[in-house]
Structure formats: C-alpha cells, structure tokens
Amino acid sequence: MSTTVTTPLATGATSATGSALAASSKFKAFATTFSITGPVAYCLTVYMNWPVFTYFPATGRFYWGLEGVQPSRGPNMLWYGWTLTTILIAAALGVIAMMLPERVSRKLPLFLVWLFPILSIPFVVYSLMFWWRLAMQE
Amino acid sequence: MTSPISTSNVFWTIWLFVHLILALGLLGALTHQAMAVALPVRQPAGGIVSRFRAVSAPSYATAVCVLWVLTFLVGSFIYTSYRINIRIPLEQGHYFKTGGFFDFKEHVATLGLVLLPAYWFFWKNAQNPEYDNARKGVTLVLAVMCWFLFIVGHVLNNTRGFGA
Questions:
Q1: Residue B140 domain-assigned?
Q2: Which of A105, B94, B130, B163 counts the highest number of beta carbons within 10 A?
Q3: Is residue B84 one of the residues assigned to a domain?
Q4: Count of structural domains within chain B
Q5: What's the distance, Cα to Cα, between the start and end of chain B in Å?
Q6: Mutation test of the interface with chain A: which of B121, B127, B146, choosing the one with the most A Cβ atoms within 10 A?
Q7: Do B126 and A38 touch (CB under 8 A)?
Q8: Crossing angle of the two packed helices A25-48 and A79-99, in degrees rounded to 10
Q9: Residues of B in contact with A23 (CB under 8 A)
C-alpha cells in the first residue's frame, strides 16, 4: 500500500478560491503580462533613465521627469520614479493583453514570470557598477 | 533645542521597527510557502520540519501580497531619510559595498513587487495543474528575494542605524 498520498494541506489543493477575479481569463492575461513584462520594463527604465518624477529628500520637492543633482536641492532620488514608470508600462501592456482574444493570450509562456526576474539580476548588478568600482579602489 | 519628532532618530527607528515586523511576517509566510511547494509533504506531518512544510500554502497568497506591498511602502518612506542620514555617512566612511548592496536591494524589491499579480493569480488557482510549475517558480524566486532583502537590510542597519 502506498503511503505517498499527497495531503490537501501540503499541496494547497483547495477547491475554489471564491474569487471571481481569480477565475477571470481577462485578469489572467493582465496579471501574467504585467508580471512578465514588469522586470523587462524595469531594466529598460533604469537603463534609459526614465523616471516619471524625481524626488529631492533634502527639500521634500518632486519634479516631473528626470532632474539632475543641484547643490541647492541636495541629492536626487530616481528609484520612486523608475518604479512608477515600470508599473505604468507593465499595466499598459497588461491592459492590451486583456483586449487580445483568449487564444492569443493563452500562448504566453508562463515560465517567463519567474525567468525574467532572474535574468534581470545580472543587469541590476551591472547597473550598480559605480559602487563596485569605488569598492575595488579601496 | 530638540529636533521635531518627524526628523528625530526615534521617529525613524520606530518606522524601521514597523518595517522589520512586516518583513518578518512576509519572510515567515513566504518561507512556509516555498517549503510547501519545493518539498511537499507526502504524509500527515510528524516532526517540526514536516509540519513547517505542511502548511495550507494557498491561504498565504493574499497575505504575502499585502505584506509585500506594505513592507515596500514603509521601506520607501524610510528610504527618504536613509538617503540623507545614512547613505551620505556611508559614502564618507567608504562603505561602498554596503551602499551598493542597499541599491541592489531596492531594485530587487521592485522586481518582486511586479511579480505579485501573477503570483496571486497562480495561488488562487492552486487546483489547476497548468500553473504548478509557474507557481512553484515564482514562489521560490519571491522567497529568495525576500531573504536577500531581509539580510541586506539587517546588515545595513548593523553598519549604521538611525541612532548611530
């Protein structure tokens, strides 16, 4: 007699989630497209330096788009702007995917959801080269 | 003259503590889930390790998403003070690797954030075998990211906290 019966608890083989959103094919197209394109959009945004806004923490001021460092304003912060740009791009692509026929959106390979963030890591490390160069000079 | 509360070390340390508590909850939930998908229990749980793996993983999905977003928002708020009060002294002290790893952490936090919609969808359809591999992959990636974020944040706080 086999003892390798997978328990419902361990696999999470619950019957239904009770959420209409989770059962929606439109939401599936949006969610998977958003998550697949998100890491790509983030790398592109960082590479092209496309923040929606720039924040200056010393003065508490926001500026649209990219604003360089100025002595009177103190250091600038681009990460908030990069994150918002990424969300906007990924959401726009997600909405487009929702409009596509299901037979088209179903062809999106789901393994890209976890593969793209892994592939983004080398780029992210490379984008921080100025830190690593400074550390190497020590 | 004392500084206003919003600029004091106590204020930021309290927010950092809130960030820590949220991060701990997230780390626990994601680690449970990652263990459940990577090493599913085949028999009713016996020891503590088996019980750790035998959690009802789908029930964690919404909590993980909410905790990731909350931790992200609180961390983003603290980041404004970090940029002035922590990063500049770190640079002056030539802690370049520490500064670099913090920037690495912020990138990873965003990469994790954008995975949440698909992660949530896959877990809310846990009964559908079509999503098994994607669900397992994205959960493991998020768990590794979360451990990385936690460890970097912890080391950074040890290097220079707000009270330093």
A1: yes
A2: A105
A3: yes
A4: 1
A5: 20
A6: B121
A7: no
A8: 140
A9: 125
In tens, the pLDDT along B145-161 reads 999 999 999 998 888 76
Whether residue B103 lies inside any domain: the answer is yes
Write down the pLDDT at residue A3: 40
For position B1, what pLDDT does the model report? 46
Summarised one tens digit per residue, pLDDT across range A47-67 is: 999 999 999 999 999 999 999
**Closest residue, chain A, to B37 (C-alpha):** A11
Closest residue, chain A, to B62 (C-alpha)? A17
**Cβ–Cβ contact A82 with B under 8 A:** yes
Q: Which chain B residues contact residue A41 at CB under 8 A?
A: 114
**Torsion angle defined by CA atoms of residues B127, B33, B139 and B107, in that order, rounded to the nearest 10 degrees:** 150
Q: Where are the domains of chain A?
A: 24-137
Q: What is the DSSP letter of A15?
A: S
Contact assignment for A113 to B120 by CB distance below 8 Å: no
Q: Is residue B150 within 8 Å of residue B48, measured between CB atoms? A: no
pTM over 0.90, yes/no: no
Listed residue (A85, A99, A24, A114) closest to B139, CA to CA: A114
Please indicate whether, in this complex, the C-beta atoms of A12 and B126 are within 8 angstroms of each other. yes
Nearest to A118 among B43, B123, B141 (CB): B141
ipTM, 2 dp: 0.87
Please say whether the dihedral angle defined by the alpha carbons of residues A89, A108, A106 and B143, taken in this order, is positive or negative: negative
Q: Is residue B11, in this structure, part of any structural domain at all?
A: yes
Name chain B contacts of A52, Cβ cutoff 8 Å: none
What is the 3-state composition of chain A as percent helix, strand, coil, each rounded to the nearest 5? 60, 10, 35
